[in-house]
Design goal:
Structural class of chain A: alpha/beta
Largest interface: A-B, 25 and 25 residues
Shape of chain A: globular
Number of helices of chain A: 8
Oligomer: homotetramer
Mean pLDDT of chain A: 92
Order of helices and strands of chain A: EHEHEHEEHHEHEHEEEHEE
Helix content of chain A: 25-40%
Radius of gyration of chain A: 17 Å
Chain lengths: 259, 259, 259, 259
């Protein structure tokens, strides 16, 4: 039986015109799913539409990359938020992107929190439930893409939503199978080669080597490659080639939708 | 036969917390349609959701009040805009509000440009077509609410969209039946009494007295009362009472939608 | 010897045009110091300039009301922030307001954190030091206005900055002399009368009655009355009258500056 | 006598974190003046501070790059603006940047409008005077950097402000010596070589070849190289080398300031 896995990256993370996003045209060819910023932490309607059209052309599944309304920090600052307000903000983002996606013949198929919201929803029931509630209110058939072993993943399952677990080949993991927080020692894996090796192990043996050297199980349906770095294209290509060499086929964790 | 007309006002024009919007709870009881700001010139997802819930409770028809992305000027500054970008921005706003409206059991039924976008789309084919294109891309059954005799109204009709014409009882009119621009002499009608009288004449005789004293025909399906002034409630109540005294019944120009 | 105290309120908390701020013209006559929002959580350059001109006319001392860059939540959401970035943001706000104040012949005389930043800097050394650092970098002769017994007050003193302590007559206090956090039981004092009584006790006996009924010492140089409620003017007038009846004179805690 | 000219570019045009601005560390070494975005159309306080520190290290003169408050369009959309509001916005930007510059030991020495505001102030007295008024209100010793033959240049001279004229080696010129508007035929000069040749002619012979082939006089004190393209560094280096080969020395049109 052929092993398959999804490769996801953020596309369309600019705001306003500028060089950000020049790589999108190359990166979109290398991945199977993309989560698209929805205008609150990044992304504007014109970029969103261009990205949806690119994804539609390439058959890449589209997800809503929902975040805190904070352009200045790119959604990377943790904000204390009333749950109802957070649900409203997430719902707003999903709906706005879905409307734009439908104007180019596709539709949002999954939801993925971004940055600080991803971190908070991974660890705290409060934020996890606020995100889940927004998805439930919008469309219960949307898949929630969340870190494996996260509170968000569990809450989404409990709410009856389809889910997919995400692995980070360029990030360190604790022996408990959770990602090392940004800024902590061991958070980043240096080098394309070692990162690609980890991607292959996640896809084939469903394991990751933790910071203490132990090999821990990790079942993920999607591997994340970053879209917001200057080396995003080279990195994605490297991971993709390594997966191909290991006989792993790429396929989206959930099929793209049409409007 | 009973004469009917729609009374519309903006509800939910704040951004963030604050006293703005305190009147909404009273104003919503006095009108039959409301256009709701969608987060770019005013409104945030929490206010949008509260407003949609208020409108749902009262059976008031909801429209998307779409504007330029310009909080600092409340959408009242004219911006030169690429048409495709404007269409994307308008589409984003309609979709975001519709998603939020559907989460409380209703849906967007019409689209109304706000402020400077309203003025530009009323006069110029470029902006009018950009707005119409967004509505066509989102849902061709949505009604466009536009000033009577405006370019936007004509473009929407040409595109096969349902339309409704809007009259402004508190605004001066030229002999050609168009609203005097803000800031020009005669732009504003002073006093609740004279304004209410004009509202009645628009609803019953389908005319308005122009600045030169001539009485010109004006066929409108909706009368606009402002929602963003300190006297909004008192003004709406005065117009409503005058219409009732004249035997005019209030009814939305298009029925509210449910999700 | 005559007792004196400062009465401070926020003026100019709108963003863009709208009814917010209508009360400013009355409120400015009732207070001796005002902290002015600087455009990141509220306030825009036009409102800032109008407010500075009002304050200049009335001889009211101007302070920079610095907050998190978060219009949607009015600066009331707690944000995790890198200290250097926070210092840069605070510095930006002080400088922008000071430039605008100087264009109308006055200048910023004090700095007061707003909302969530006030709460964080009151309790945490991290945020307190980031604010203090910004003041030190801009002008060491500016006074820091902070809650009494707060970490911010202590850090400002340690850095050699002039300080003033602020009391909240409409807020509950713990037996330790600290304000009850918003949303906690006992956080708000109901009624203008009881609030005015507390204001008088703070100004005369330098005490406050805590939630457990004990009377605790509280030395403050400024009493805060809110500027962002519909009853702001009535409330400020009530406190002012009560202070006058008790023989307390109003005077700014630091003199206004001219450019 | 040695010929000298200034080379200016925008540095620090990002907003929030991201790859934008990676080139700044190289570009700053190649130029003699930089105009820094002030947070309304681009730039945030952290980027502004980093850029001022870079410029201070390299002895590069700092100017305030003032623009419309419009992040989504990067200040490139023309906005109809009340003059007083525009003056307030420009003043806010100059003051904010100057405060940040002073925290790292330097100060703003000139003001340059950006994007759509540059275009409008170059052609219209209304916007030109609003910008000039802001400079006059802030500091009459600041130099205004404006396109040669522009209305802004003339208004600044009339107001007694120091001025410098700017030439665009990569832009086409009319026989009247004005820049061809963006988007018009002939607006852009293709190729680094031809552009560098034009830069040399502007610096040495003080002429430019217009679109009709005529050679017209053009007296400029500063040559602009773009900072917001992926090839900004290579382009600036090419122009710099060509000027050096022609014996032109680089020097800022106005000396950098210290706080």
């Amino acid at each position: 039986m052929t092993l398959t896995i999804d490769l996801n990256a953020d596309i369309g993370e600019g705001f306003g015109p500028g060089p950000r996003g020049e790589d999108d045209y190359s990166l979109i060819n290398l991945i199977t799913s993309t989560s698209v910023a929805c205008g609150l932490h990044s992304g504007d309607p014109t970029i969103m539409k261009r990205t949806c059209a690119l994804a539609a052309d390439q058959g890449v599944t589209i997800g809503a990359q929902v975040g805190y309304p904070e352009l200045a920090g790119f959604g990377n600052r943790r904000i204390d938020y009333n749950e109802q307000e957070l649900t409203a903000d997430v719902l707003y983002q999903i709906a706005a992107l879905d409307g734009i996606a439908r104007s180019v013949g596709v539709a949002v198929a999954f939801v993925r929190p971004h940055g600080a919201l991803c971190d908070k929803a991974a660890a705290n029931e409060r934020e996890a439930m606020a995100v889940v509630e927004a998805v439930v209110q919008y469309d219960k058939s949307l898949t929630v893409l969340a870190p494996c072993s996260s509170t968000l993943l569990r809450c989404a399952v409990d709410a009856g939503l389809p889910v997919a677990a995400e692995g980070y080949p360029d990030r360190g993991y604790t022996p408990a199978g959770t990602k090392i927080a940004t800024g902590e020692p061991g958070a980043c894996i240096a080098g394309f080669g070692p990162t690609a090796d980890r991607a292959v192990l996640m896809a084939t043996d469903r394991v990751v080597e933790a910071t203490d050297g132990t090999v821990v199980p990790l079942t993920v349906q999607s591997l994340r490659v970053h879209g917001d770095t200057l080396t995003a294209v080279a990195f994605a290509l490297c991971v993709r080639n390594a997966l191909a060499a290991a006989g792993v086929e790429l396929a989206p964790f959930t099929p793209g939708r049409t409007s």
